[in-house]
UniProtKB/TrEMBL annotation, chains A, B:
Pfam families: TetR_N. The keyword Transmembrane helix does not apply. It comes from Vagococcus silagei. The lineage of its organism: Bacteria, Bacillati, Bacillota, Bacilli, Lactobacillales. Residues 44-63 bind DNA. It comes from the Bacteria. Residues 21-81 form the HTH tetR-type domain. This is TetR/AcrR family transcriptional regulator. One of its GO terms (molecular function) is DNA binding. Keywords: DNA-binding.
Length: 202, 202
């Protein structure tokens, strides 16, 4: 009896511990999955709890609120997106200015092919506030943009404010991406090329 | 009895006719009101019918679908918005290039102060598709933009494609407006000035 009870306790402990250790991660993985497949508006604590077969209270033990969960999901989705942008440059022998244009085209395409992720990252209430190169940020997308903009600034002997350049590029590419995804204008890669060049060579 | 019946018939006819004549207009006015106060997502045929004390069928007699009603509402709201933009230029002794920048600032402010109208005009499924100066359009906003862009092109001896210039301005100002309304960046009028100039003087 003693042995069986010990064994039972051990298994119970392992199962519980396993659950505890992975639940936080599993909540985040499932949240990102729902965001991608159905859109961030479809995520709810009840839905996550049902899917993972736990109580809503168990969810709140790991994330104080849906907002805290979304904040983690933003980091995760933007990390994936940054890797996609980096991949678009891999193996390309192009100038830093051309790199910005290539990333711009990739960004516009992402708004159409990954609409749910794009809406969550850039058009939801959970999007990063005050996007700026001046704020120290560990948002991987900003760090990546900062690094390619720095190289393009060197290449073009650009003498004006980096922050203004960043905002110009950011507003233009973001506006382009939203308008293409809403089918209000069509993607024209040469237009992106020409605009990036006009910002960098004044 | 004959006189009373005639009178009754006349009053009934007048009332009915009054209703008929104004219902189409009243449906549109109410739709625009709900869009402004609650957002376009709150509009439904049932809600309009309840407010106007008619049956949903009476609504469908004038508008085949909610989409047809929204298409009319887009014209109405964009007309008001265009008048607002025109007013922002009234009495200003400024150059055509400066006019574009002023309209740009007004546009960005509108996205914040009239968020519901902005979302309906530019971020909904009912927004005008394929916005372009090439397409003959009676969308008053496009006609107005076309006229001030033509003047700025003359002023700057601009030699490149008008369509490309329009898309550059449109994507930049639209992106700026959405990012400011989502509190992702702050409005900086000088940045809009500098960007409009950089597009026009190459």
């Amino acid at each position: 009896m003693f042995t069986v009870l010990t064994l039972f306790k051990e298994v119970y402990y392992m199962k519980n511990n396993y659950h505890k250790e992975n639940l936080k991660e599993n909540i985040l993985i499932l949240t990102v999955k729902i965001i991608k497949e159905e859109g961030y508006q479809s995520v709810s604590v009840r839905k996550i709890a049902n899917h993972l077969d736990v109580s809503p209270t168990a969810i709140y033990r790991h994330y104080n609120s849906l907002e805290e969960l979304f904040t983690q999901a933003i980091v995760s989705v933007s990390h994936e997106f940054t890797n996609l942008l980096k991949t678009s440059l891999k193996g390309c022998q192009i100038s830093p200015t051309q790199e910005i244009a290539t990333v711009g085209v990739c960004f516009v395409n992402y708004a159409t092919t990954s609409k749910n992720e794009f809406d969550f990252l850039f058009l939801s209430n959970y999007s990063l506030k005050n996007v700026s190169l001046n704020h120290k940020s560990d948002y991987p997308l900003i760090l990546f943009m900062d690094s390619i903009i720095n190289q393009a600034i060197k290449e073009n002997n650009f003498k004006y404010s980096k922050e203004i350049l960043f905002n110009q590029l950011w507003c233009f590419i973001f506006g382009y991406a939203v308008l293409v995804s809403k089918k209000q204008i069509e993607l024209n890669e040469e237009l992106i090329d020409a605009t990036v060049k006009s910002f960098l060579t004044r």
